[in-house]
Specification:
0% strand
């Protein structure tokens, strides 16, 4: 509730300011007024976005039509055997195809070996899917901390100005308070922005993992049926 109100108020302020001076000019002005801690906050945003772009590209390539893929592999197993199924896996991108290929490599060693291979390579693929998320999480945590640190610095400057002037007036403390509020604002905005992408990536990974688990079950069942068929022959 408080976050929603904060974002709404921030949007209103930015919208009103944009009508007068333009968003870019407003951001530049506030960035310069925010003091030295605005630089590392900006670095968190830039590096965080770099990892966001990389993860977006990687995860977009990881999704496939799992039902269609499993159907092709099953048909290949039944009609042409394991080698043709391997060829389909080699020509298909994504973690599901990779664990299928790893399982098919152990098809001659029994279903237990297939399941172990799928589990092992599934863990490896999980590592690839989650790679880079720790850095996005780090920037989400670090940016508001830097903002709060800038807030402390701004308040120290405000009290120093009061001490030097030996009186309290808005003009004396305005600069220090501006630094305090701006660094907090920008730090929180960067964290919320990156958090949206982080949550999206987690949901995408969960979906892909679900596909991997579903596909693994389908593959083991298909190999079981193939073995029974070969025994009958």
């Amino acid at each position: 509730m408080y976050i929603a109100e904060f974002m709404l108020n921030t949007y209103s302020i930015i919208a009103q300011t944009t009508n007068q001076t333009g968003l870019l000019n407003w951001l530049t002005e506030k960035y310069e007024a925010g003091g030295i801690f605005m630089h590392p906050i900006l670095a968190c945003l830039v590096f965080g976005l770099a990892f966001v772009i990389e993860r977006t590209w990687t995860l977009s390539r990881a999704r496939i039509d799992i039902k269609e893929f499993v159907k092709k592999v099953k048909i290949a197993l039944q009609e042409q055997g394991v080698e043709q199924a391997k060829e389909i896996c080699r020509n298909t991108r994504g973690p599901v195809a990779s664990i299928f290929y790893a399982g098919l490599l152990r098809a001659d060693e029994g279903l237990e070996s297939v399941e172990k291979a799928i589990t092992t390579y599934g863990n490896i693929e999980m590592g690839f899917l989650e790679r880079g998320l720790i850095w996005i999480s780090t920037f989400i945590t670090l940016s508001p901390m830097l903002g709060f640190t800038g807030t402390v610095q701004g308040m120290i400057e405000a009290f120093d100005a009061i001490k030097e002037a030996n009186q309290i007036s808005p003009a004396i403390v305005a600069e220090g308070i501006a630094i305090a509020l701006l660094t907090t604002l920008f730090g929180l905005v960067v964290a919320m922005f990156l958090q949206l992408f982080y949550n999206y990536f987690i949901s995408r990974i969960d979906f892909i993992v679900g596909d991997m688990e579903e596909g693994a079950i389908e593959l083991v069942d298909a190999l079981y049926e193939l073995k029974n068929k070969q025994k009958k022959v």
